[in-house]
Design goal:
The chain is mainly beta. The chain has a domain of about 130 residues. The strands form two sheets. Strands 2, 3, 4, 5, 6, 7 and 8 form a seven-stranded mixed sheet that branches. Strands 1-9 form a two-stranded antiparallel ribbon. A hairpin with a 4-residue loop joins strand 3 and strand 4.
Length: about 200
């Protein structure tokens, strides 16, 4: 199999990059890390999932265990914390708890992998790894696609936008569309109760 080109050196300033030289490529060596990571860096911007979640100024906790194995470095991690979201029914702000696990093997080289495996494989590059991709994928899978403030949230009135949770009896009287065109009409020349034949005829 042709050798795949390795990615350029990881950015050591990234909170998702870890130096693994201390593992010494000795199978069984292990290191444990606890690190706060910015939500917008993890999930890619100030908002995610069509604006349902806001990650600016949000920190999540990354617990990470790195183990040296024969093929490379096995990373086992958990991302936890809370992210501000928006209820898809009533649009109220909500807090969504995140507790996402991931595990990824970073290979020293691709020699023993098939072409298909090598296409998806992550690598140790100059004794560094980046867990940004597996951590991001784990959290995205954890976040509800349709966050709700509560399972039975009634949402908003389709006609006026009122919060139905505040007024369970809220409703609008519906007019028969066949009579809607007549609702604005008035009787010319006087009140509707006036005798249409007139009352001016003499004796």
């Amino acid at each position: 199999m042709p050798a795949a080109s390795k990615p350029r050196r990881y950015d050591a300033r990234s909170p998702f990059v870890f130096d693994v030289r201390d593992l010494g490529r000795r199978a069984g060596a292990m290191r444990q890390y606890d690190r706060d990571v910015p939500g917008d860096a993890l999930l890619g911007g100030k908002a995610t999932l069509d604006g349902l979640y806001r990650t600016q100024d949000v920190d999540l906790l990354l617990d990470l265990r790195l183990e040296s194995v024969v093929e490379g470095v096995l990373a086992t991690g958990r991302v936890s914390g809370s992210i501000e979201g928006e209820c898809v029914r009533c649009l109220d702000p909500i807090e969504v708890e995140v507790d996402a696990d991931f595990q990824e093997l970073f290979y020293y080289d691709l020699e023993d992998l098939t072409a298909e495996e090598a296409e998806e494989a992550l690598l140790v590059v100059e004794e560094q790894i980046s867990v940004a991709s597996p951590a991001h994928d784990a959290v995205m899978l954890e976040l509800p696609l349709q966050p709700l403030c509560r399972d039975d949230c009634p949402g908003l009135c389709a006609e006026c936008g009122a919060r139905l949770a505040d007024d369970p009896d809220h409703r609008h009287d519906a007019m028969d569309p066949r009579w809607a065109a007549l609702s604005g009409l008035t009787v010319a020349g006087g009140d509707a109760d006036e005798d249409p034949a007139g009352s001016s005829s003499g004796a």
